[in-house]
Amino acid sequence: MIILGHEQGSDEWLADRLGVPSASMFSKLITSTGKPSSSADGYINTLGAERVTGKSTPYFVSEAMNTGTEREPEARAAYEFLTDHHVSQVGFVLHDSREYGCSPDGLVEDSLTGEEGGLEIKCPQQDTQFGYLRDHQSGVKKYYQQIQGCMMVTDRKWWDFFSYHPGMDHVLVRVERNDEYIAKMREQVLLAVATIKIQLEK
Description:
The protein contains seven helices and eight strands. By secondary structure, the chain is of the alpha+beta class. It has one domain (about 1-200): Alpha-Beta Complex (Lambda Exonuclease, Chain A), CATH 3.90.320.10. Helix 4 (about 125-135) packs across helix 5 (about 135-140) and helix 6 (about 145-155) packs across helix 7 (about 180-200).
C-alpha cells in the first residue's frame, strides 16, 4: 500500500482521491453478495468526470454527518482505551497498483499478537446505535463492501468495526478478510477503472 500524507478532509486529500475508486463507494460497484451493482454506471461517470474536469464532485453533508465527524476522535480514543491497540491515523491510501484506494479511520496493531489490521469507526445517531446493539452484525453488513475494500487496498487480514455514541454501549466486531469476496470486488473495481480509461483515450 502507498500511504499519502494529507489529512482527511483537506483540499490535498480531495486531490489525492480525485477520480480514484475509493472503498467507501465500492458498494456502488458490487453488492454485499458479490454481484455487480446497478449503480456502477453512475459511479463510473462521476469518477470519469472528475478526471476530465479536475474537480471533485460536490456532496451533501448533513448535520448528523457533521456530528459524526466531530465525534470520531473521541470514538478513536475510546477504541484505543478498550482494546489497548495502537491506532495510526493516515490520509488516503492507494493500492500498490495506484488504481484504487481507501481512507481508513485507522491502521491498527493488535497489542497482544502484533498483527496488523484496520479500523472502521461509525458515530451514528442514537436510534441507529440502538439497532447496532440489538444486532452487532447489522453494522458490518451495512458497510461490508467498504470494510472488505479497505482490506483489499491495504492487504491486511482483519478490520475492526467500532460504532460509538456517547452515553450508550459501544459495538465492536472484528471482521476477517474474505479473499473470495475480495477477488470478485477487485474484478468489478478494475472493470470500472478500465471503462474510464477507454473513454478518456477516445
